[in-house]
Amino acid sequence: MNVVKAAVIAILVYVGIVAAFESFLGMFQPEGASTIVITTTDGSGSAEDRVVSPIDDGEDLYVSANHWPRSWYKRALENPEVQVTRDGRTSEYLAVPVAGAEHDRLATEHAHGLVFRILTGFPPRYFLQLDPR
Fold first, then answer.
1. CA distance 26 to 65
2. Which of 3, 60, 62, 133 is most buried, taking the most CB atoms under 10 A from its CB?
């Protein structure tokens, strides 16, 4: 019985760590030289900004949903006309979901480290290609 109790406590502590880490990122959205701001809109035209890390892959620009909270990603799927602010310049893009072999290639070539995956609770990863408009 003590083993089960310890396992339940360990799982609850881990879930708490993941929730705290994800909440911190969501509230503070740390910006830096290696981030961009993606602006998505919903059906009513309400805009929402989210700080994300760009993936520059040759001439192509991608972003990925790397966390459990991903409302910005769902909004981009519903209305793929997005704005990206990078280095102080805002441009229009079309967000195109990436699947299949291209998804697998990006996931392999731009993989996250184990510590990041542990802290985020091993969420599934989804990619969007941002095509300039």
1. 13
2. 62
The 3 state secondary structure assigned to the chain is CHHHHHHHHHHHHHHHHHHHHHHHHHHHCCCCCCCEEEEEECCCCCEEEEEECCEEECCEEEEEECCCCCHHHHHHHHCCEEEEEECCEEEEEEEEEECHHHHHHHHHHCCCCHHHHHHCCCCCCEEEEEEEC
Distances in Å between the alpha carbon of 89 and those of 23, 47, 53, 92, 112? 28, 17, 16, 10, 27
State the residue range of the domain holding 46. Answer: 2-132
Confidence (pLDDT) at 124: 92
Q: Read off the CATH number of the domain in which 113 is found.
A: 2.30.110.10
**Predicted structure pTM score:** 0.83
* pLDDT single digits (tens) 26-46: 666 667 778 999 999 988 889
Q: Is the pLDDT of residue 122 over 70?
A: yes
- Of residues 88, 80, 69, 66, the one with CA closest to residue 129: 80
pLDDT at 66: 87
How many domains would you assign to the chain? 1
